[in-house]
Amino acid sequence: MSNASWVARGLKENVAKLPPATGVRRISIPTFKHTIEPMPGKMASVAIYNHLATKYGGKLNKQAAQEGLDIYAEFVEEARQHAGSHPNIDLLFKVIDDNMVVDVHVDKE
Predict the structure, then answer these.
(1) Chain centre distance of CA 24
(2) Is the pTM of this model over 0.90?
């Protein structure tokens, strides 16, 4: 299924279409020493990275990162304009720009 067939216009709508990230305690990307934990303001990122890890076999590559950016929708341009304001999006830019493949670990209860 192509991203265009389900990605909507906004983050909230896109995340609502993802499988629930029930039981996720932490998402970690060891290459970047980066973690995302479920807390207010981070739940969309937990859902997105959980989805990408599941769909892409625990790997984040250029294709997965682009899908993540599509899901983040309206926040991508803001992240481009203000580097560091959205570190979970910045990480996706880095994967794409450097054509990286990195592990994504999902720790569940």
Answers:
(1) 14
(2) yes
